[in-house]
């Protein structure tokens, strides 16, 4: 006899999300900083005002990503003022994705919020993130409703990137979501266990799954300083994202090859027939050149695509640590 306890639930209604309470929980803010001396004081003012009103215990983990200005000195001054500000000093500039990973590795909170220090991620949103977390979301992420602050070119390229990424890969990136989000500890642990060195965080954030909830917000301009992202860097960033989440760019070449082969066969047939019926005409130098140049171009493209993947395999296989920590301030061990 089957006991009623062990039997399946009668309806297949979704499992209700757990409700949680922030009481007694810890929040970790993770802030990667690269040449941010102008904006840091403002950042601490704004975020600390916000955090004080949230009713949670908190720490602010700042990762100095090899800044060449006085960022480290400013961070240390804040650490002196308030031990809840903790500082990881990386040995050089490793890039934002890696700096973020370094911060996630040392953050101890039950909830973790990566944030840009230039105040483009409004700290006021953290309260809404926590509300969503209490209502059962494991990830609450900010979505930019309005990109009118960006140039037309940046908007178009971003749009194209999301289209290409979502078309080519199995995970779907939510449009216009950045790194600004709140993650439950379980999600952070999954992220930390991912072994890859090429850390395309947007993709990894989407890959982990869990209960994710979007929170819309208007993204302001940078408060001070300058963005360190240029188009070339963005292009490489997009390439990293697509190659680490999709193999379509190398698989497509078998089909391109097949199509080229079939075209060649059809073309050969047409030439034979034409010669049989109309005799020989002047040898076709232009068409020959077109075919040669085209097949050369296609081969180079295919080899290039292969190279992108081989280079990344090489990078992963070397197994170097993701980052090198030079100093830590405010951590017990
Ligand atoms: N950042 C970093 N390392 C880098 C570049 C940027 O840690 O090599 C940090 C930077 O200090 C800021 C965040 O990443 O807190 C976002 O950078 P930025 O504002 O330049 O990018 P954007 O907002 O233009 O995407
Ligand atoms: Mg910014």
UniProtKB/TrEMBL annotation:
Keywords: Glycosyltransferase, Membrane, Transferase, Transmembrane, Transmembrane helix. The chain crosses the membrane at residues 252-273, 285-311. The keyword Transmembrane helix applies. Residues 28-190 form the Glycosyltransferase 2-like domain. It comes from the Bacteria. Residues 1-14 have a biased composition (Low complexity). InterPro entries: Glyco_trans_2-like, Glycosyltransferase_2, Nucleotide-diphossugar_trans. Gene3D superfamilies: Spore Coat Polysaccharide Biosynthesis Protein SpsA, Chain A. It is found in: Membrane. Residues 1-20 are annotated as: Disordered. It is a multi-pass membrane protein. PANTHER family: PROPHAGE BACTOPRENOL GLUCOSYL TRANSFERASE HOMOLOG, UNDECAPRENYL-PHOSPHATE 4-DEOXY-4-FORMAMIDO-L-ARABINOSE TRANSFERASE-RELATED. This is Glycosyltransferase family 2 protein.
């Amino acid at each position: 006899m089957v006991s009623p306890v062990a039997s399946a639930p009668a309806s297949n209604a979704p499992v209700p999300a757990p409700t949680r309470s922030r009481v007694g929980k810890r929040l970790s803010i993770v802030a990667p900083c690269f040449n941010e001396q102008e904006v840091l004081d403002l950042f601490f003012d704004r975020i600390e005002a916000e955090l004080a009103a949230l009713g949670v215990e908190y720490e602010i983990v700042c990762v100095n990503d090899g800044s060449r200005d006085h960022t480290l000195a400013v961070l240390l001054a804040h650490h002196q003022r308030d031990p809840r500000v903790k500082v990881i000093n990386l040995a050089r500039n490793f890039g934002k994705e890696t700096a973020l990973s370094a911060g996630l590795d040392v953050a101890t909170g039950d909830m973790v919020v990566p944030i840009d220090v230039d105040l483009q991620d409004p700290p006021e949103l953290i309260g809404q993130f926590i509300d969503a977390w209490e209502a059962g979301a494991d990830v609450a992420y900010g979505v930019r409703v309005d990109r009118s602050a960006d140039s037309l070119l940046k908007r178009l390229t971003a749009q194209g990137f999301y289209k290409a990424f979502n078309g080519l890969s199995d995970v779907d990136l939510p449009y216009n979501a950045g790194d600004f989000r709140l993650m439950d500890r379980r999600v952070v642990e999954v992220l930390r266990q991912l072994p890859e060195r090429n850390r395309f965080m947007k993709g990894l954030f989407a890959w982990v799954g869990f209960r994710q909830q979007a929170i819309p917000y208007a993204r302001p301009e940078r408060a001070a300083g300058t963005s360190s992202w240029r188009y070339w860097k963005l292009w490489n960033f997009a390439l990293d994202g697509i190659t680490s989440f999709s193999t379509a760019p190398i698989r497509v070449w078998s089909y391109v090859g097949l199509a080229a082969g079939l075209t060649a066969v059809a073309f050969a047939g047409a030439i034979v027939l034409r010669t049989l019926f109309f005799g020989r005409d002047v040898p076709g130098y232009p068409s020959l050149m077109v075919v040669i140049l085209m097949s050369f171009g296609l081969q180079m493209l295919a080899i290039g695509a292969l190279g992108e993947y081989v280079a990344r395999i090489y990078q992963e296989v070397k197994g170097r640590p993701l980052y090198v920590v030079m100093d830590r301030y405010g951590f017990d061990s």
